[in-house]
Design goal:
By secondary structure, the chain is an all-alpha fold. It has a single domain, classed as Ferritin, core subunit, four-helix bundle (Ferritin), CATH 1.20.1260. The longest helix has 31 residues. It is elongated, with a radius of gyration of 16 Å.
């Protein structure tokens, strides 16, 4: 693999790691925001899964000799602030939190699909990305059903 390809792969993995850190932190906040115990458990479960995947991606970056950045993005910080504001303005209506989670999942899905289609990852990483895409797409469908039922 040439140096340019290695750099592109590392950049793609870092983008995925950043989005997973953002997702984990968002779900932790969502779990603290909602009063429905079922949603709280669901959000904690998703946060734990996102943390595990972020760890796997960080390990891949370490294996490539890179130092993973696990700080997340400023964009996600603004999104979490927006979730808190919507929650307060909606009188703690869980459906607004679910809508924001759905929006975040769609953004994560776009990132994963973009990286998968870019050709910047090795075949060794394909199973991890495929699993991640499947999990996120499943969450999107579940949240869409919740939003439709609200």
């Amino acid at each position: 693999m040439n140096p340019t390809t290695i750099l592109q792969e590392a950049d793609a993995l870092q983008e995925i790691l950043t989005r997973y850190v953002d997702s984990r932190d968002g779900y932790k906040q969502a779990a603290e925001t909602v009063t429905d115990e079922g949603l709280t458990r669901t959000f904690h479960h998703i946060a734990e899964r996102r943390d595990r995947i972020a760890g796997r991606v960080a390990e891949l970056l370490h294996a490539d000799g890179r130092q993973p950045d696990t700080s997340g993005s400023a964009e996600a910080g603004v999104h979490r602030w927006w979730i808190r504001m919507r929650d307060k303005l909606s009188d703690h209506d869980s459906s607004t939190v679910v809508e924001e989670c759905l929006r975040g999942e769609k953004e994560l899905s776009r990132t994963l699909h973009s990286v998968a289609e870019s050709g910047n990852l090795t075949a060794d990483h394909a199973p991890l990305i495929a699993d991640a895409i499947s999990e996120v797409d499943l969450a999107i469908r579940a949240f869409e059903l919740m939003v439709d039922d609200a």
